[in-house]
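Hey,
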Amino acid sequence: MSAQPQPAVSESSAPHAYAQTRKAFWTPSKKVGSFYSLPELAKRFPNVKRLPVSLRVVLESVLRNCDGKKVTTEHVEQLANWKPKAARVDEIPFVVARVVLQDFTGVPLLADLAAMRNVAADMGQNPKTVEPLVPVDLVVDHSVMVDHYGTKDALEFNMRLEFERNKERYQFMKWGMQAFDTFGVVPPGFGIVHQVNLEYLARGVHKGAAPRGQAPVYYPDSLVGTDSHTTMINGVGVVGWGVGGIEAEAAMLGQPVYFLTPDVVGFEFTGQLRPGVTATDLVLTVTEILRKEKVVGSFVEFFGAGTASLSVPDRATLGNMAPEYGATMGFFPIDDKTIEYFRGTGRTKDEIEHLQAYFEAQEMFGVPMPGQIDYTRIVTLDLGKVAPSLAGPRRPQDRIELGHVKQQFTTLFSKPPGENGFNQPAAQLLTRHHVRGKELREDPVQPKVPQTPEAKAGAPRPVEEMQANKPTLPAAQSLAPSEQPAQDDTTIGNGDVLIAAITSCTNTSNPSVMLAAGLLAKKAVEAGLTVKPHVKTSLAPGSRMVTEYLVKAGLQKYLDQLGFNLAAYGCTTCIGNAGDLAPEINEAITKNDLVCAAVLSGNRNFEARIHPNLKANFLASPPLVVAYAIAGTVLKDLMTEPLGKGKNGKDIYIGDIWPKNEEVHALMKYALDGKAYRTSYAKVQSTPGALWEKIQGTKGQVYDWPSSTYIAKPPFFDGFGMAPPPTQPAIRGARAMALFGDSITTDHISPAGSIKESSPAGRWLKEHGVSKVDFNSYGSRRGNHEVMMRGTFANVRIKNLMIPPGADGSREEGGVTLFQPSGEKMFIYDAAMKYIAEGTPTVVFGGEEYGTGSSRDWAAKGTQLLGIKAVIARSFERIHRSNLVGMGVLPLQFTGHDSWQSLGIRGTESFDIELAHDIRPQQEATLVIHAADGSEPRRVPLVLRIDTGIEVDYYKHGGILPFVLRQLLAA
């Protein structure tokens, strides 16, 4: 863990404006603490008692940090007087207690900090001026890939490949650990950032400064994280959400997180889940409901008797998916279930006592019941109506009841793209194609590994022990079973499940669904069922504790027998780190244009995210992932057709092997063992693993930027001066880089997944001596802007609608554009460099929900580095809009029913964007369209989506990072 928090109360010599609200509270053990009392504030502002609990947590931060400068008395009054239904014009300065990073976003953030220190040193100032002011924890969880699977040694080989590929990145992290006082790292092999956050990093309450003669100040845990699923922590009553690395960096350096006062949607649960229905089914149902409710930018707060009945892991599953249903948060208040979870995951008695005593003193303990809170509006769901479900084939909100999956896939197979279909001839649905490879599931690499007693007994070995007793690792290119030549013939066809992965923070943090998967595997093995040979299976839990309780419950060995061997502790398939399929299978898919499937227990299934050749991707609970691996296809109705043939040729149905609720509950005792959690997480400090301990970073307070294709000094501070550049009131003569449709995600924009050899990034790596086998992923190279800017808008499934459609209406995919005025087709990167060279600004046009998906800061950074000055869309996703402003790119929104389509924009035009000289939040702007034929220009109104006053300052300074750096150096 990182260093302890800095003082929580302003150190200004001036008296606190609300000093009278500071009160004392006592724990059952008679320990005293002080706190800024919301019940006391309510004597002046009675409305506080009716505020949603999530807003009260934010209000406490505003109250405690009221210093008359960044946080004023007006901010306190505005939030204390929040009205459920009102225009949202006030911005809240939210000072968070800590920041959490994952390594893909954390490395470029660390690179920015290092570059800031270079600037400070070059200007003759102390580099330590640039230092995180709140604790920062980076969890390395995004770098491991499923190259190796289906064997007992898969975890070991995958981790060793991970360290070989990412040595330079890990050396850089080690430098950061010694250079910054408040920066800590949880090394690879411990788990996924959000599950580690739940089980280990979250404290519930923090203890701040203790002024002379007074009790220390306690305050609620709160955070922002550089991953959109940071909202998982909302399941334990912690206010926090995902932001871009850009915004997180500002929070680390003392800036409040600014956001518009939100609507708060109350979500009431009634009733109880039926037997056989999982938390995954519930979250997919809630995601579908809330997407239709349009809760983008809102807090969602769960309440009611049904909410109180849910366990913390079930709550965390619902909080995790907030980005999928569009909310800023999916919040659950602290209650007895929270205390039970903190006790079961190893928090100390003292921590738990202070947590409960604090929230009781604040009158915020317990799940509110109907009528106690004023919400903007209320949504209600009877838990008893939730049914087993999947979501897909392209979006998390497209829920399908289990019995309708076959029908839905069949329908979509021949529907046109405009109806979310795959545009294939219906007659080809059941056609199968031969593939050499009857033994595709067999791993031909079987190195001799020293066997510990635990391994002989079938238990996965501890990571640190495996690293100490490592076998000789074969060459990387011979490691992956997917790359071995297949021996015999098998067939694949449309609808075949080629990847079945138990993965992602969403579900692997939840013992009920993980134990259910293990129980289903046990019953399947006992019934004689096996997994189809074309399915790539993997198990990547969110923490080591999952392995511990699966082994103790006697279930891991059955998962192993079905090929769900432990492959990694980290984000794998869900973020595109599934590893490749066999070359023969890839060839069969591309040659025959097959629509094959992945089924995963994740939270994202956007196009090309899971694997570039898999067009249909379905989210499902862990037990359903196992079931579909056995069925081998989504063209089987699991509610009416058998999964497969068992012993003696008997048909086995899913109902025959689905675990009963009582069976799951009987094993839950293995999942919440406080002592086991404390022992496991103590190893973060004591025994992080031989591979990690061998990594040696450079020393010193200023980074020396050794030559690397992974880490490079970012260009965002080139030419930096203490005075910001003058703001330009207009953009003249811009060209359109791309015309995009609705729901363009950050997966489409930001470099992610594998790097194609023929792409601009692939060409650059080869020019710098990197062979194809060592390309690694875009995510792992986020610390090098040369790679990332070449991969921006380079997704293999992105469709630039500037390119005319084919005769059949199909659209070309990939990051290409038509350079103007010649109309020459080329990669977007190559066109961007030509436009920059000739001094031509560029813009991008989009549709609804531009920038939805993961909070990838490179979606904004890459946009800026390509010379794109503005993005003009029908609507924006919250984080990406903020990130564009943070990088000095204008987000502009069409008004009324206008769109680039309705305006007849084709991409051959040139454009002016006119702004008022004195930029104000959400002011009107004008788009001037100059047609190629020289006809009269058209003037179209736009809304400037710079939403708050502080964002105006960020834009005027060229972005949030130059703004913060000027503040630090001036101080």
